[in-house]
Amino acid sequence: MGALCWKKGKEILTNKIKLVVSLFLPVLVFGWIVYNKNTMENIFFIFPLVSILLFWLVMFSIEDYIYTEAILGTNVTLKDVWVSNLFLTTFVGFFYSLVLSIIYLVFTNQMHVIFEIGFLVNMMSGLIIGGGLVAFSTFYISNYSKLRQTISSIGSIGSLALLVVLLLTDQKMIILENKSLLVMILAVTGLLSFVVVDKYSSPEAFLCNIKKLGQVYEDKQTTDE
Fold it and tell me: What is the value of pTM for the model shown?
């Protein structure tokens, strides 16, 4: 899995546009969250959650799955690919949000907040919900069937809806008031997604389904050229 994370990390560093967007978009979003006069508690719940989802959306590439067939002949499994992408997306997004949050607290002379239990609880709540959504939105890699893609799309749509609600509407209070429930739901959802990928993956079905997508992708690339 370490090699897969290294490969994905290298791809991110070589894609300058995605790298710049992933570095500066969270900064702008953090400024927007603070500008909207959210409480300190809400800031440190919303920001890590939003950062994880934004990092996932920016860094997602269908090529990650199309070219996965090239490494399935090794001892790498579909679970390895899924876990490495989930780990990189979730924890890089979370770590970056943590760094920016600490910088904000330093400049506003509020470093004492870091040592409050509420800070940790809210950051971890954002991590669990964000990670659960990413896990649910990507478990279709287990066989890439239309059924699992359709089910996973619920997570993708939910992630986009959550971003819109938290950043652009006044309905965010519904989410903030029920975040404990969301944490439990997404924790269970993430665990179930792991079980599906771990126990019910089918490399054979994946290769058959991804080959069709790969052909469409290659035809499009040829047409564009």
Answer: 0.87
Q: Helix/strand/coil (H, E, C) string of 158-183?
A: HHHHHHHHHHHCCCHHHHHHCHHHHH
- Burial class, 174, CB count within 10 angstroms (exposed 0-12 / middle 13-18 / buried 19+): exposed
Residues in the chain: 225
Structure tokens at 170: 């006044």
**Number of domains present in the structure of the chain:** 1
Q: CB neighbours of 57 closer than 8 A, spacing ≥ 6? A: 159, 160
CA-CA distance, 173 to 165, in Å (whole number)? 9
Residue range(s) defining the domain that contains residue 117: 2-224
Pairwise CA distance, residues 175 & 80, whole Å: 32
83-134 tens-digit pLDDT: 988 988 899 899 999 999 999 999 999 999 999 988 999 999 999 999 999 9
